[in-house]
Amino acid sequence: MEKKIVTIGGGTGSFTILSGLKKFENLDLCAIVSMVDDGGSTGRLRDELGVLPPGDVRQCLVALSEESKVIRDLFNYRFEDGQLKGHAVGNIIISALEKKSGSFSEGLGVAMKVLRIKGRVIPVTDDNVNLKMKLGDGRMLKGESEINHNFFVQEKGLNKISLQPKAGINRVARRAIEQADVIVIGPGNHYCSIVPNLLVNGLAKALKQSKAKVVYVVNLVNKKGHTNNFTVCDYVDSINDFIGEHRIDYVIFNKRKPGKELISKYRRKGEDLVSACSNLERNDFEMISDDFLGNEVEYSKVDKISNMRSLIRHDGNKLANVIKSISESE
Questions:
Q1: Which end of the chain is more exposed for a tag (fewer CB within 10 A), N or C?
Q2: Given pLDDT bands bounded at 50, 70 and 90, which one contains residue 307?
Q3: pTM score, two decimals?
């Protein structure tokens, strides 16, 4: 019997999981994608063309594509010079399809056919929104990029995080959550990729009403100035708070440490590895702890925000194996 699996996140984390899950048969895959990205190529396209953010959607499309490697690589290719320097080809194509059709979702539908994807990619909202964060000292951060580059969130304190303007859940996304057997949240930048989905009106309600098993994939590394020293339980509690009730059933946690050189690189960036819960044993979720570490990541030299991206990622195949097992468990 076909299992319905829904991922909720941003681009890179969802890409990793979807790339692994795509290899299995009898899985109905659906990627619900955050729509607040405003940095790099995506930010330029939003500013210049007035389109919705294509970057995270592009990564999910490529992950699920059953087209040739040449086509998939083309969608991720970034121009190295000229006026298009830094732009990903796929971002331009998705934006062009939106402009031509007059609708991001309609343009995305065409892109899904062109790339012959296995499953569906759904924007969490069709509304044009931006992320906004108010710090404890009253300062207002506007936009995902500004928040991502601010390293004083913990020091100043998080007063409020919201979407501007308020956004409603995409009806197709809501239906997918309601019908899912398993919902996978994360991994990804906590405040800039994961939480923005939970701020969309209707998504938390859909999660509460869904009978699906909810799986949370913990980040490998904490973000400087945002989640330093966060443990697994800190992330779980934060996400449950944004949902409005305890909803996470399973937690996937990588227990293998990367090499000393990589750890040193992260320390120089002011970032630390996520650790297990520091308090007493929790029994409100099942912890699946194993070696889920992938290889070190290389980025295009013209990716303007590569310095903000992770040096390591999860192993998508290992994550997919666990998620599939959860979907088959009673």
A1: C
A2: very low
A3: 0.94
